[in-house]
Every structure is written in C-alpha cells, then in structure tokens.
Design a protein that fits this description.
The chain is mainly α. The chain contains three helices and no strands. It has a domain of 45 residues. 48% of the residues lie in helices and 0% in strands. This is Ribbon-helix-helix protein, copG family.
C-alpha cells in the first residue's frame, strides 16, 4: 500500500503534542530546509508523511526513539 494519490481513499491522522514539541519539530524542519536536505517548500504534513514512510520501510526506527507520552 503506497502513499495516497488524488482520488484514493485517505485518512486524516492526528496526534496531540505540546506546543513546545511542535515548535521543536518545525525548527528541525526549517534547519533541514536551510541545509538543503529537504525542499524549501516542504510542509510539516509532508515531513510527517515521509517519517511515516520511513517507519514503514524500517520499523526499527520506532524502537530507536525514546517515547514521550506527553509529546
């Protein structure tokens, strides 16, 4: 099952995280954009989709990150 294309069924995925956590993610995304790692116009949603794809391809990525239930 690949990423949803136009016209395909899609599912809206959400997660509640602290404002500080979201800000940290946005700063990391901005750093990646400035460093040329990702396109300058990449949205937070696209970054999250890419992270989800990476976890699907290598589930061990989820085990290598410390969990934080509060975000």
């Amino acid at each position: 099952m690949g990423a949803a294309q136009d016209g395909e069924d899609t599912r809206n995925v959400s997660a509640h995280v602290s404002a500080e956590f979201a800000d940290e993610f946005d700063r990391a995304l901005k750093r990646a954009q400035i460093d040329g790692i990702v396109p300058l116009d990449m949205s937070r949603a696209e970054a999250i989709r890419r992270l989800m794809r990476a976890a699907i391809e290598d589930p061990s990525l989820m085990a290598s990150v410390e969990g934080d239930d509060d975000g």
